[in-house]
Specification:
It is found in: Cell membrane. The protein is an all-alpha fold. It contains 14 helices and no strands. α4 runs antiparallel to α11.
Amino acid sequence: MEQHFIVAVKAIIPLFLLIGMGIFVRWRKMLTDTELKHVNAMIFRVFFFCMMFYNMYTTTIATALRPRLLAFTVAGLFIMLMLSAVVVCTVEKDNRSRGAMLQALFRSNFVLLGLPLVENIFGQEALAVPTMMIAVVSPIYNSVSVFFLESFRGEGRFSLLDTLRTVLQNPMIIGAILGAFFMITGITVPEPVLKPIRQIASCTSPVALLILGASFQFGTISEEKRNLIIVVAGRLIVIPALVLGTAYYMGFRGVDFVTLLCIFATPCAVASFAMAQQLGSNAELAGNSVVLTSAFSSVTLFFWVMLFQVLGVF
């Protein structure tokens, strides 16, 4: 039991220490809101591009491709989305809040927390599998989030063509596609070019987690207490229990299982706040969902890692 506890601590504590450092940065006002916005844009457009490119370029198809994992993930995402839609549309009548809640329940912080969690448990060489999954999951997150936020805004502005264009302009998707192209075709990237890409890729997760902490904003929680309880319980307890329990009995193990844990048990994606704000949803509810699920996930993620360690999953 002590060994399992140590593994869980080593996997979780570094993530939240980095987030805590970011909160300290914000508290000490080392970065203004404008500077944080610019740094976030840099991380999104440069750091994640390099990380996705490098992880795809340095892997092999046999290592990264997991058809069974891919099928289970996509099925799990849409089944959980349908169940969430039934619950949310039953308990909440305001469309703006419905959109924010559905996005919070559906869209996890897989990229920011998932990759470092896999690395903490298995090492950097295991990142090929979650990187491949990001290339699949990220477009689903983006397109489905836009669809629901636009639909519940009630203005009928959803456009499949515009959504696909937005997804294909995502630096993570571009980086993954380019990395896969170079890997499949066997084109060698010269070492003087690959070295800075590798250096940026290696520091992407810690920098992103630090800025994540610095970006947190606390809103009025009491006004949305019921909805926030639903989001926090659904995102961190109910959905992981259903999906990970099913994955366990279906025989998923090792890095495949931890990748699923990172997709379905991590808190709400930070990007959900900005998207809710831009598309006329309940941005305050979206922001509080990010803050609270991130805070409580320090406990729930530890629990899930510890539980499945004890069960011998990884």
